[in-house]
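Fill in residues.
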């Protein structure tokens, strides 16, 4: 793997025709095979775009997923799905409900991983929603304990991670956007994620969204993964000074473009952010990516942010003689 590699977090925006098709399919107006064809087409286009601009580690773009938690819930026994629940702003999702013992009927994301990896010789990340987030974002009507529910999710997600590895995934990312929801449960996050990653030979990544990083800082080195993927530009790179004082003993994926903004950052702004990161992290430990998934941006905005991310990284590598 090249030093200072580039990647994306996971989700990418769906083209308009796929958005309309998914809505139509949800109402029974489109056959699953027809929807699958459009999802494959969009996945193929996003893989092609990432290769075209020179991203090093690719994602499938999650064109086949709605909400990250609901997607897994829909494919598990012991789960039901509620009506629409407001998450933030004017965005809604169908909240999972634990109604019985959680079991995995079959691999959930492996088929799509194989499809995406078959389109490129570059590594594609296997991506699963983490056990703590699955628990925190679900109604529990069965286990009666947040800890027991999280560990039940961890057991089946460990099976999923092992199947992704067996299918050829050399990188497995665990998405835990709810990690900082409750500081008192950070030991549970560590234990649940550890149950997912235990025994994996693949490189493991934990991605979390922006939260109270200061409150969770002491746990960052305890998380049982090889790399942490953190939103940094949205928080004004505020953790850099602390990382300089209290080093991260892991690799870091460093968010340099803000996925909450419609503005495509100027190249010089992204270059400056990468340069500041290099003052703390060596290029072998530093991956450059967006703050979070780009699915809330338009297709053009997402492409613009990814292009500037790659261009800025190339400029920094050239300036430092990094290969």
């Amino acid at each position: 793997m090249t030093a200072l590699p580039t990647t994306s977090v996971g989700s990418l925006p769906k083209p308009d025709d796929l958005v309309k098709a998914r809505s139509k399919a949800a109402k029974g107006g489109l056959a699953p095979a027809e929807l699958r064809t459009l999802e494959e087409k969009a996945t193929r286009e996003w893989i092609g775009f990432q290769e075209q601009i020179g991203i090093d580690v690719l994602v499938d773009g999650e064109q086949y997923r709605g909400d990250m938690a609901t997607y897994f819930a829909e494919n598990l026994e012991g789960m039901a799905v509620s009506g629409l629940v407001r998450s933030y702003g004017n965005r809604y999702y169908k909240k999972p409900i634990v109604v019985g013992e959680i079991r995995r009927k079959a691999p959930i994301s492996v088929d799509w991983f194989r499809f995406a990896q078959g389109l490129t010789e570059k590594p594609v990340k296997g991506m699963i929603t983490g056990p703590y987030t699955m628990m925190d974002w679900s109604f529990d009507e069965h286990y009666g304990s947040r800890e027991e529910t999280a560990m039940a999710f961890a057991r089946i997600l460990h099976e999923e991670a092992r199947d992704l590895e067996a299918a050829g995934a050399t990188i497995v990312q665990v998405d835990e956007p709810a990690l900082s929801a409750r500081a008192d449960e950070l030991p549970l996050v560590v234990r649940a994620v550890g149950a997912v990653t235990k025994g994996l030979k693949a490189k493991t990544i934990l991605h979390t969204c922006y939260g109270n990083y200061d409150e969770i800082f002491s746990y960052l080195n305890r998380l049982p993964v090889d790399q942490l993927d953190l939103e940094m530009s949205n928080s004004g790179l505020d953790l850099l000074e602390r990382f300089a004082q209290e080093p991260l003993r892991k690799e870091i994926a460093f968010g340099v473009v803000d996925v909450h903004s419609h503005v495509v950052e100027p190249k010089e702004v992204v270059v400056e952010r990468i340069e500041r990161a290099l003052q703390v992290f060596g290029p072998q430990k530093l991956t450059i990516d967006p703050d979070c998934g780009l699915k809330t941006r338009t297709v053009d905005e997402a492409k613009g942010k990814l292009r500037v991310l790659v261009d800025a990284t190339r400029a920094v590598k050239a300036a430092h003689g990094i290969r």
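The beta strands are 76-88, 91-104, 126-129, 139-140, 171-175, 203-208, 227-230, 251-255, 286-289.
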